[in-house]
Design brief:
- The chain has 17 helices and 2 strands.
- With 401 residues, it is mainly alpha-helical.
- A two-stranded antiparallel ribbon has the order 1-2.
- The longest helix is centred in the last third of the chain and has 28 residues.
- It starts with a helix and ends in a 7-residue tail after the last helix.
Amino acid sequence: MWLIGLYIVALLSLPVDIGLNVGGAVITPARLVLLFAVVLALLEWRFVLLNIGRLPKLVWVGWAAFLGAALITAIVSPSVASWARYVSIVGEGLVVFVLVCHAAGTPGGVRTLITVFAVTMVSVAAIVLLLAAMGQHYDYILSGLAGTEPAGVASPRYGLERQAGPFRAALYFAIGLTAASALLLPAIARGATRTRSLAIAAWLLLLVAVIFLTASRLAMTTIFLIPAAYFLVRGPRLIGTASLVAAFAVASGLTLLIPASPVIEESNSLRLSAISPALQAIAARPLFGWGLLNDMSVLSGILGTKNYVDDTYLSLAIETGLVGLGAFVLLAATIVAATLRDWSSARGLALAIALASLLGMAVFASFLQSTQGYAAFFVLAALAVAAAVRSDERGQPEAAT
């Protein structure tokens, strides 16, 4: 389990391009740790099979559909990039899901890995905030030490300088911070006095990071919608209602500011201009798409200028066709359905909301198309499914952290 915990830390704290370049593939610290975890899992394969054998069979149907559709796309539209992406989907999608489920199947595994995920994101947020206060960029410093190119500078918004942290875009960083905020809610609601105080402080730190580091309209609204959903279900409903009002106030306030911001108008324009060519691309190859990692080149070719669609589902439809998109939706649906068994527990509900927030925000960002994005999603998905299975086996939900 400690190797998977280390993998989560490396995945969420280091940019994906930092590592050894071997034949065009970057061997990042996270991938290196994952490789060790795979070797260890092979040595104890019987125990691994026992743990993952407890998972709902419907989840494996979803995985088979998604991997099968992506494989057909890679065969129909072959390229080095397409096959590399397929290997990555298997290696950092399926393998991560299996190994996290295995680690979470050990006593205390779910609690430990949830804590690692949340603490890593809170710690990264604190470091990035501290560096930003000194006029520095977290990713610039790490890229400088590794000798790699940092992510491009994001245009300021609302008078704030946006930062990507360990991710490749400020919006992706915001989505990671927001999803992590859901994992703190059980401790805020039912934790011991000291634990609750620390969880509240951590949640507020994530809120500050979302606002002042990313200035993401989507994340600033969602980070209030998450506790609204949680507390309206489990109580106290007064906090849930207050969070919902806060989300509405933030969304309304930002909407009023949009006309005064040329940067936001440009962002909206770029998003809207990509929709029509995206639909044209899908219509041209509706079944199996244009090939993995080809969405940007296809869109740019139609538009005659460089552009991309910032929507995970449209990107999947362009790359893998409607068959691939349907297969991914099926996989996501089977994972969400598996978590239904544990929604009555504090931890299960928090994990389900974290997954829902990622899937919802993916409509406005190609977060699940990035390595960190889909790997982080499958970490949370595996934890949610494993928590539900353990809850079933014990006959009652695990206690909240």
